Amino acid sequence: REMSWICDTFSVLYGMEDVNAYACVTGKPITLGGVDGRTEATGLGVCYATKYFLSLTDECKRVGVTPELDGKTVIVQGFGNVGYHAAYFFEKFGAKVIGVVEYNGAVYNPKGLDIEALKAHMSTTGGPPSGFWGRKKKTKKNKKKTRLIKKAK
User: Which residue segment(s) compose the domain that 26 sits in?
Assistant: First the structure.
């Protein structure tokens, strides 16, 4: 909404003939020249940047990683708009998302997380990811904590 106001103010001040009238600001609705897909664009960009870096064989050698995103494991910091979409697209590109860290908790599963189920869990409970069932279960054999960050009290 606010971006529409800025665009409108610019066009009132400079006129619609100005080549920058619609291009003066990002995040506008599609009806004012915004771009469809804006919601997921930054998370997708994170994945494309990572995928591109991993295509640079010499750079991968230099930092000690194997090329290609397919088969890599990923932990995502933050699970808002950018983090969710990054996790979603990492999964689509063949990586396995094994952890999500948020300000109020974290979840980890070395076998991979169900990203859509985690999103649904956080949307319906409003709670931290650490309450998500899709994490590594504690058993008598496995007494390791599954949280990467302890919840604030």
Answer: 1-36
